[in-house]
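Chain X:
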Amino acid sequence: MRTAMLKSIRSSLQKSSPSAVLRRSFSSESAPERKVVILGAAGGIGQPLSLLMKLNPLVSSLSLYDIAGTPGVAADVSHINTRSEAVGYMGEENLGKALEGADLVIIPAGVPRKPGMTRDDLFNINAGIVKGLCTAIAKYCPHALVNMISNPVNSTVPIASEVFKKAGTYDEKKLFGVTTLDVVRAKTFYAGKGKVPVAGVNVPVVGGHAGVTILPLFSQATPQANSLSDEEIVALTKRTQDGGTEVVEAKAGKGSATLSMAYAGAIFADACLKGLNGVPDVVECSFVQSTVTELPFFASKVRLGKNGVEEVLGLGSLSDYEKQGLEALLPELKSSIEKGIKFANQS
C-alpha cells in the first residue's frame, strides 16, 4: 500500500501540467545532479515541502536550512528511500554551507498569517528575513533559481531583486514569485463548480499573490464548463482570491495554508527543475519581472527553460469582467511592489 501511495505522489508531481508525457522522459537515472535548498525547512510549509522534494526523483541533493529544528527534519526525511541525500543546516553560521552549489533555492521562511492579519501585516517581519536570506544567496549561489514563497510575495520578490542588483548578481530570468497555490485553488474550485474532472483542468491565474491582485482567468479555463453563470464566475473569483483567508479562519489561529502551499511549491519547483534539465514546453504561472503590463513585476504564464524564464507569455483574450479585475488590481499591486523596493533600499 505504501509503495502504491508513493508512486501516486510521484505521479502527481510528474503529471502536473499538459506537457507531462515529454517530461516523464527524464528518469532519476538519466537526470543530472541537482541541488535544491529549502530556506525555512523546519516551518509549517517547510516540513511538508521538504518531504515532497525528497520524493522528487530530479533532486540529487536536498539541503534543509532553518534557524532551528532542521537536523531533526533532515534525519526524518533522510530515511525515505529516494534518490536524494538530505542534509540539515541550523543557524546563520551554517547558511553559506547550506547554499553552496545550489541549482534551486526555495524560500518559505518567515511567519505565517494569523486570523485578522493581511499579507501586508506580515511585511515588517518577513521583509527583513527575506532580505537577509537573499544577501546570502547572492554571495554563495548567485546563479541559482530562486522560488519565493515568503509572503507578501508582491513585495518580497521586488525586495529580492533589489538585493541581487546591489550585489551585482541580479538575473531577472532566475527570480520567481510562487503563485502556484492560486492556480491550484482555481483549478479545484472550478472543477467542483463546473462538474468537470479536476485532473484535466487548467486555469491561468495572473496579477499578484494577495486578495484582489489575484486574477483567475476562468474565460481561458479548459475544459470549458459552459454551464457556469456570470454570478458563479464572480463567486469563484472571490473564493480564489480569499482562499488563504478561508484556511486561516478554518484553522482558528493555529496556522495558515501550509499543506496546500507545500504541494503548490513542490509542483512549481518540479517545473523549474524540468526546465533546467531541458524538458520542452514547461509552462507555469509565476510572479516575475515583466513587460506584460506597465508594472515591473506581474504574474502570468511563463515558459521555463535551462536559464529559468525562457519567455513571459501575454495575457491572451480577457472577458469584460476580467478586464475590470485587471484595472482594479494594478494600483494595489503597484503599491506593494514599490513598498518592497523602498524597504530594500532603506539600508
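Chain Y:
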Amino acid sequence: MPAQYSLHPHIMLLSNLTQFSPMLYLTGFPGLETIEHWIFIFFFLMYLVAISGNCFILIIIKANPRLHTPMYYLLSFLAFTDLGLSVSTLPTTMGLFWFKSHGIYFGACQIQMFCIHSFSFMESSVLLVMSFDRFVDICYPLRYSVIITSQRVVRVGLIVILRGPVALIPIVLLLKAFPYCGARVLSHSFCLHQEVIHLACTDTTFNNLYGLSLVVFTVMLDLVLIALSYGVILHTVSRLASKEERLRAFQTCTSHLCAVLVFFVPMMGLSLIHRFGKHAPPAYHLLMANVYLFVPPMLNPIIYSIKTKEIRYVISKLLS
C-alpha cells in the first residue's frame, strides 16, 4: 500500500481478501474527507456544464439543417466523445463523494477504464481529423468542397474513432488474469489502466509495453500530425497578402487549437506523472487526473459556443 495513504477500515478489509477477490477500493482526496460534500458540489457543477453543454451542441447541430456540414459533423463527434468521457466517470465519482461508496467490482472497473481510455483515444482521433479539415480549408480552399465531403468525414471519423477501443481490448481483458495482492487501493475516484496494473503482483511487462506502444502510435502520433498540419497552416497563413486575411484565416483555427491544448496538455502531464513521478506527492496525481478527465468536456462546448459564429447565431435566436 502506498505510504501516503493512512489505513482505513475498508482498506484493512480489502487487504485481507484473497487474490481472487473482485473488489478494488477507490479514494477521493486524502485529508479532505470532512469537506467531501463541497467537493461533490464542485464536481456536480462540472458534470452539469459538461453534459448539458455537449448535449446542447449535439441538439443544435441535429436540429439545424444549415449546420449539416463536414465541420459540424466533426464538432458533433467531439461533443459525443466529451459526453462519453463525462458519463464514464460520473457513477463512481458521484457515488464516492456523495454516498461514500468506495468499493468497485473488478469487472465494473474494467468497463470503466475501457470507456475512459476509449473516449480519450476517440477525442485524440477526432482532433486529428479536425486539424486535417482546417488544413484543407486554409491551404486548399478551392478544393475543400471536393476533398472534404460529409460522407467522407463520417466514414473516416468512424474508422479513426474505432481504432482506440479495438486496440484497447487485449490489455483490458488481460487484467482479469493477473493476481492482485495487498490493499488494492486506487488513488482516484475512477479506474485507469496505468494505475490498476501497478497493483498486480506478477510480471506485467506485456501490458506495460503494449500500453506504451498504444499511446505512442495513437495519441502521440495524432499530436505529431496535428503539429505538422499547423506548421503548414502557419506557413500558408504567413504568405497571405494582407494582415486582415491572415487574421481571418487564423481565426478559423482558434477554437480547434484551444481544444487541442485543453486536451493534450493535461493528458501528457498525467502520463508523465504516472510513468516517471512515482515519488511525486499524491496531490499532483489527483490534480492532473481530474484536470485531464473533467476540464476538456466542460470547456470544449464553451469554447465552440463562443468562437463559432453559426452556433452563436443559433443561441442568439433561441434567447431572443
